[in-house]
């Protein structure tokens, strides 16, 4: 057979992709979301948010470009929204499910999301975005698989496991929320326990069941690990086994072999683990960072079991030790070693490196400092001394009907330095459509990790450093192969810089993934607007658009039966 010319090959490739594109599937899901008071993941009685009776909720298993329809029935006694952490909602912030884009789904009501996993692959998770509900459950994994026609840069694993790990409180999320809503001191308690897929640590005194994975000797498995917690970063490791890092939040990474991996709140990673040890049981450990949790006394160390199918051994002995939890250099060095694999394809066959940043023109720079502040006596979290106040009317709705008028004032927020006075604000700033933005995050929160997330886009993580950021730091940026991800950590007293390409018109939430910080105001919105409908046209509102606030039945949003405020009114709003 004659060999094909490169033109013929290109034509075949294009046709194959067109055919594959036509195969995008529709995935229909119905979720009953309710409060379960009998599940009690730890023997303490507490309400847990379940989806179809499950905690964590069901995995969404999609492929690039699929349409996911999720019909959410809210059986809670309060309003609810889900957000799809890392799913970029191309041209469609209407489906993003945060307080600035959607009216909350009222108790007893349902609402159908329809979103596309457009041009994406990778590991993500979803969670309830309002009312501090994430601390009560309601989260679950999202997988976006490669289309058949696009090679995955490693052999097909024997199986894949979702592993959602996060800190958890013995107090109910409602109790913590009410403390934050009504008291003049912020709820200070650190979480009580680390759960793996909703299960307590192996051997824990509050033993219900622990998490366990059964594997076959000699095979390789993919673990999709997410930090679904509220505040604690953790170090993940498997006794005697190496982790081969392959993916993070939609990007294939350089494949590096690790003994352990730090995962910060809101982040997701895929690692490959080969079962090359003697038939036995092994510990799977997630130990918190920046906390003194001695390996075998603290509930804050998540412990699961890796069980070889022919193992007859019962697990005993000390947990495998990890890095010093206070050793930030270890963590920073590891973070810097995670690079984009420039030669592999992802959602499209083009190498990821086709989209590199080494020669881009930056059109905007925001320098964003996270801090705590007292505003009118209330403890709040801020960005540049401004604490976000959630308006009754979603920004996106106000934008659509009235160009934002009456709900927010565009570009009032100081994007380059802290306001000289601590203030509340509805912070919405312009992001230049099709411009590259440089976002610099400074963490002045004291001894706490912070993590940041922007809906709608990926972060090209160009720099991580100690101390306060200054323009000279730019010379240290990695512009060759920065990894692209949706959530980035910022070390205590340090900075992180990212680039993002604002090619996705919409109203996009920029937030701390640390739940308390977020709930108490550490968020803002970037409005990317495109006057020219060509070539990228933002989608019109969906036919089932919910109305609330200014546009609800009440008209002025004060006490609106259709759409209540996204959060319970609290004293400092008046
Ligand atoms: C666990 O506790 C025991 C007894 O207190 C101690 O001997 C052991 O070193 C501890 N193991 C770890 C990993 O800290
Ligand atoms: C959801 O609830 C409805 C009404 O109670 C019930 O008919 C349906 O079977 C439930 N669906 C699932 C998946 O649990
Ligand atoms: C997820 O979807 C892929 C592609 O359709 C399929 O091959 C795989 O078996 C699914 N996995 C699960 C656990 O359903
Ligand atoms: C952790 O323990 C070490 C040694 O006991 C101590 O020096 C340090 O202050 C502790 N840190 C915290 C945050 O408790
Ligand atoms: C990058 O991906 C390619 C497959 O596209 C693979 O062969 C190569 O080993 C990967 N490189 C690294 C450093 O992981
Ligand atoms: C970088 O940009 C400049 C100006 O736009 C251009 O002249 C040059 O060819 C670019 N270099 C590369 C390597 O793309
Ligand atoms: C909408 O608001 C923006 C920013 O406030 C302003 O520049 C623009 O002129 C307004 N457009 C209309 C149609 O009022
Ligand atoms: C934030 O505001 C407070 C007063 O409300 C002020 O004391 C403080 O200096 C401000 N922070 C910065 C970094 O300007």
Automatic annotation (TrEMBL):
Positions of the Plastocyanin-like domain: 39-148, 163-311, 393-532
Annotated source species: Linum trigynum
Name of this chain's protein: Monocopper oxidase-like protein SKU5
Keyword field: Glycoprotein, Signal
N-terminal signal peptide: 1-24
The family this protein is said to belong to: Belongs to the multicopper oxidase family.
UniProt-listed InterPro entries: Cu-oxidase-like_N, Cu-oxidase_2nd, Cu-oxidase_C, Cu-oxidase_fam, Cupredoxin
Entry GO MF terms: copper ion binding; oxidoreductase activity
Region (Disordered): 530-574
Cellular component, GO annotation: plasma membrane
Biased composition (Basic and acidic residues): 530-540
